[in-house]
Amino acid sequence: MGTRPGRGTANRGGGRAGTRLRRGGVAMAGGGPRRCRRLEADAARAVLGAADTLLFDCDGVLWRGEAAVGGAAAALGRLAAAGKRLCYVTNNSSRTRAAYTEKLRRLGFPPAEPRHVFGSAYCAARYLRQALPLGAAAYVLGSPALAAELEAVGVPHLGPGPAALPGPAPADWAQAPLDPAVRAVLVGFDEHFSYAKLCQALRYLLRGGPDCLLVGTNRDHRLPLEGGTAIPGTGCLVKAVETAAQREAFIVGKPNRFRYQQFNIGLPSSPTVQRNSSSSALMPFSSTQTLETPCLYSNNRAYCLSVLPEY
């Protein structure tokens, strides 16, 4: 058996190494060219007509901060009226699934149920429930929403909220009490991220060694906001913990295959279409699944590391 994910090894989704994006949307993969087709009217009708389910990224695609992207709510309303099943796949761990359904309603999108939202907080909770022994706890660098998702599946946790260094000297910082039940460090979006939390995360990982899981919700470097601005994303925090621990985290968010395995909505065998704002986050996810992949340029300049979108 191989090394278990989260125990000092990486799991970043399965892409084809060496794919290069050339002008005109042509990628060289495996020695031959592959063309990215422009999704014009006829192609769009064919793709959408064959699909029963549409997967949408949220930040940068449907909204930026608290403002809906122009035309997005109306477009999804037409798709829902046409009988399409709409699902939402987000790496943002700062909201619960229930909170995302409320935000969709508030911004004028079609009604959604929590079971149609696949946030990284929910997926992280599901992963830890499966990976941790009964009674083991997680040290959380994250939001109250991340803690709520852990509570919902019965995973004990500690850590959300502000933290202070236990004394003035580095020797004090290395002597803060450790909970004996902690068997995982979970890193999500944390507005209270601090040196004190980084110290504590490292100490748990050093104490537990490979038996203490290191899990991140996503590697997104930025979170897009209104007016084209952005703030640092969870990937920056994950990288800080990885650097201190000298090991890589298991990432439960896009493009990891684990996220797809959490879809409990009965995805049909007929085509499913996903729309995303960044070619790096979701296209490797689709290359390992049976999905059509149009790439949007609404958030940042698209780039291709290992795969090319269909459209």
From TrEMBL:
Q: Name one GO cellular component term.
A: cytoplasm
The UniProt catalytic activity note for this protein reads: sn-glycerol 3-phosphate + H2O = glycerol + phosphate; O-phospho-L-tyrosyl-[protein] + H2O = L-tyrosyl-[protein] + phosphate; sn-glycerol 1-phosphate + H2O = glycerol + phosphate
Q: Name one GO biological process term.
A: glycerophospholipid metabolic process
User: Pfam families annotated for this entry?
Assistant: Hydrolase_6
Can you provide one Gene Ontology molecular function annotated for this UniProt record? sn-glycerol 3-phosphatase activity
EC number of this enzyme: 3.1.3.21, 3.1.3.48
Sorted keywords for this record are:
Carbohydrate metabolism, Hydrolase, Magnesium, Metal-binding
As for what it does, the entry says: Glycerol-3-phosphate phosphatase hydrolyzing glycerol-3-phosphate into glycerol. Thereby, regulates the cellular levels of glycerol-3-phosphate a metabolic intermediate of glucose, lipid and energy metabolism. Was also shown to have a 2-phosphoglycolate phosphatase activity and a tyrosine-protein phosphatase activity. However, their physiological relevance is unclear. In vitro, also has a phosphatase activity toward ADP, ATP, GDP and GTP.
Q: How does it assemble?
A: Homodimer.
Task: Identify this protein by name.
Answer: Glycerol-3-phosphate phosphatase
Q: Which organism is it from?
A: Falco tinnunculus (Common kestrel)
Lineage of origin: Eukaryota, Metazoa, Chordata, Craniata, Vertebrata
